Prior knowledge:
Layout: E1 2-4, H1 7-15, E2 22-27, H2 33-45, E3 48-53, H3 73-82, E4 87-89, H4 113-117, H5 121-136, E5 140-144, H6 148-160, E6 166-170, H7 190-209, H8 216-229, E7 234-241, E8 255-263, E9 266-273
Parallel strand pairs: 1-4, 2-3, 2-5, 3-4, 5-6
Antiparallel strand pairs: 7-8, 8-9
Bound molecules: pantoate.
Amino acid sequence: MIIADHPTALRQYLAGVKQKRIALVPTMGCLHAGHISLIHKAKCLADIVVVSIYVNPLQFGANEDLDNYPRVFEDDAAICKAEGVDCVFHPHDLYPEGGAKITLKVHALDNMLCGASRSGHFDGVVTVVSILFNLVQPNIAVFGEKDWQQLAIIRRMVSDLHMPVEIIRSEIVREPDGLAMSSRNRYLSPAERQKALRLSQALYLMQNDINIGGKAINIIDVGMDNLKKHQVSPEYLEIRHALTLKPENTITSQSRIFIAAKIGNTRLIDNAALFPQTMTNEATP
Ligand code: PAF
């Protein structure tokens, strides 16, 4: 496995594998089973797998956890090696000295859900992902469904900017008790870890309660009541169309539930199809 710590080293490596089908798995490190499932998917679909590990300052707001974001490169590199990754791209910085002067701006799909409270976050995400696409020039790139809004926005970027890369999505990986895997789970104390379970529990309760054609608000009440009972106040709990992310007032087969909540100081997100069994490919970003 090659570790490239600079774009030049990455380019040198890529020059030797030009004819091969390349998959990129963009990450910010602190790899867990969710990332490993992205790597597995990438390995199935390409000859060469490049994993990027870069904590992108541009996607963190002023009061967010950039400085404290877990950085465990040795562990990450060991995981990549064990999983048969071909190249880890781990640059010290991807922006010029003095910071990025040219960035991308998202004008759709970002004024709701996480975008509503994280101003500029998705601008930072698409900027770094487009830099990574330019550097790696992958045939495919694999993203997790846990960040559903991110996936929808990246798909839109690739389509609007005619980027020659296919975006592959990969299902959420959960702990046995239902908690969605996240690098931020390691911040949770044992008591917070228990409380964090209420997010996925709310999604399951809502899935169980649903009658197609019913009012979204009734289903939301089911989730909200349970969250309240366990002293969890979500930042949002919403039902939206899986593809357009528009609010769904009436439940349809394309409805998806989105939740975000702060547990202690840790902001967690999760989402699920309201009808997992009827979820079609057209309903995915
Ligand atoms: O999902 C993430 O880990 C990040 O947002 C990404 C896509 C690697 C961009 O920094």
